[in-house]
User: What shape does this take?
Amino acid sequence: MLDVRGLGKVYEGSGRRVEAVRDLTFTVDAGELVCLVGPSGCGKTTLLKCVGGLLTPTAGEVLVGGRRVTGPPPDMAVVFQEYGRSLFPWMRVRENVELPLRQKKLGGARRRGLVADALESVGLTDATGAYPWQLSGGMQQRVAIARALAYEPEVLLMDEPFAAVDAQTRAELEDLVRGLWRQRGITVLFVTHDIDEAVYLGERVLILSASPTVVREQLRIDLPADRDQLHTRVAPRFAELRTHVYEQIQAAKRGTPADRPAEDLKPADRPAEDLQDPDVSEHPEP
Amino acid sequence: MSARVRNLLLRLLFAVALPAVLVVAWWFASDDSTDVYRPPLRTILGTFPDVWTGERLREDVVPSLLRLTAGYACAAVAGVALGTVIGSYRRVRAVCEPVLEFLRAVPPPVLVPVIMLFAGIGDTMKIAVIASGCVWPVLLNTVEGVRAVDSVMSETARSYGVTGIARLRHLVLRAASPQIFAGLRQALSIGIILMVISEMFAASNGLGFTVVQFQRGFAIPEMWTGILLLGLLGFALSVVFRLAERRALGWYHGLRDASRRSS
Amino acid sequence: MRGADALLGAAGLAAFLALGEAVPRLGLVDEDYFPPTGRIAGALAGELGDGAFWTALGDTLTGWAIGLAVAVAAGVLAGVLISVTPYLREATASTIEFLRPIPSVALIPLAVLLYGTGLRSVLLLVVYASFWQVLVQVLHGVQDVDPVAEETARAYGLGTWARVRHVLWPTALPYVMTGVRLAAAVALILAVTAELVIGAPGLGARIAVAQTSQAVPEMYALVVVTGLLGLLINVGARTVERRALAWHQSVRGEVAV
Assistant: This one.
């Protein structure tokens, strides 16, 4: 569904040259939920903007449903981290969700149906007439999610969507996203800097290196499909996976090359020390 | 009496007390005035209805207001349109900035003799004077507002296919509207000044013309009523403006209060 | 980046001047109404060599400076007084809201009657218009005082005067500076207006004379001078504001953006 091939992005301006993304290749299958984690400042946002067609990459290409991305694709929706700046404060909740649909030239009845459905599925039926700034942060991000759902995208990009809300709200929103994903079968690419969140949400976690960014490791999350905050997060397997990701990210920050591939990480038989094995370095950056 | 009613009454008292005291003081202080230039308030108020009803209302007040409206509307449309173009493109802005800074700094009333050269002394001249004085604050504030459209909002609009006219209508102009209104408010007081000045300078009717005629003809109480009327007009227009602004920027005041409460 | 912008700005200015030269030369507008840039420049040079021009400039600046000084002093004093006296703010709010939007040019006939064409006429208009700019900003500024700081000051037994000096004034200062900047621009407008309409000596009166004697290039040259004066005042006021408040958060934020 989503195919990123050899993506690179170099910023140039006023004599400085910054290589934000070096060479990224990965795919996301239709209906998959993939999380991207990486050390802070590793070019996650640049990557996401290239995928979303908001930035033109300097190398490589992005394909959505087989078509090359040159501008924002019509079957893709983005949920940004800064909910306060991504919702229009001069529009009520309903109008915010509806605006993109107007641009799609949908009929009035169809638009109203989609808006009502999207707001209901994020649990905001009562807030349709409110302005975004009258709502709490978590509710505002729900509105942004509803806007994305109503757009009926094939692919949903989420750029650290819960980084700015409190912990309890965050847990609720994580469950909401996972629930909606399972219900609607959308392809989701979820960028986060929170390791627990990545492991809890994803079917697969892509670990990025420090900038200039490459994919350091792809890790399949073999947790059961039914997850909940209480039990999943205390499961031994969850702890193993998060430890592994954590170590990879620490290593990425130090700049040491990638560890052994994730396939080596057999379920529940590998103590954490093993993962730090320093002599296993036969898999450098591609 | 409940606390709320008492609170309301207290606020009403505060609002009315000082103006009432001032008017009463003026009334009694001037009551036995024999100074020709400072007639008793009683005389001024007595003259007011005779002067500003009927023909003068039709022949002077209404034309003045129409010219103000026309010039102000031209300035608003031109200022917002040009400001949007200039604000949207960084290079255009860089090219125009010094020239705009200069044009804005020219005191608007000196435009009266210049525009008289082109447009004579008719309505066109006055409308042109008002428009060319009012346009700068609107234009420059629009440039600032458009320039400062939030980058995340801008990207949101792009990724959801909100482009072109829709982007202008739903994003750029709305996001810039607080600054645009700030410019419009400055433009309003400049507009009133220019309305009066252009009529004082060269006209055969209008508020400014009439007030100066009274002064030159030593019709002192009438002149005072003219000053009062201009004052009332300025006040009334600012009230109308504030109501319009509150309607259009309700979201902005709400947003600001909300962020002030949370910080 | 900045250098490139300055270059573009210079290009824009050059294009503006060239346009002013070309449009009348090509006959797009009547040269009598809109002299080419070159002739305006010539007239400007002539003005600069004329002693009467410098006297007029001095008169305008005198009216501007005295008026501004009086307005600032009165505005600050009234603002602080209204803020520290209990209930005075509530009591004066409606009166201020009523008096502020009254156009100062409404006072022109009164000024003429009372003071003729002298400096005092100019001052009446300048002071009335600028005073409100300062006063309103001071009131805004005082409203911005952190209640915790105010209570702390009270708790430590600071008297009214000490509180004004150490708590109220520093908080209100950026607002006062903004008020002064706005007032400086308004004061110039009203000074020139008074000269133009009433005939008080100064640049405005000189423009009126040039107009009635059909000296069109000279008139344009004088308009340019008033514009440059306005520009100088704006830039100067902004610089002073930034210098004086380099430490203050609101200004730092503005610069950073």
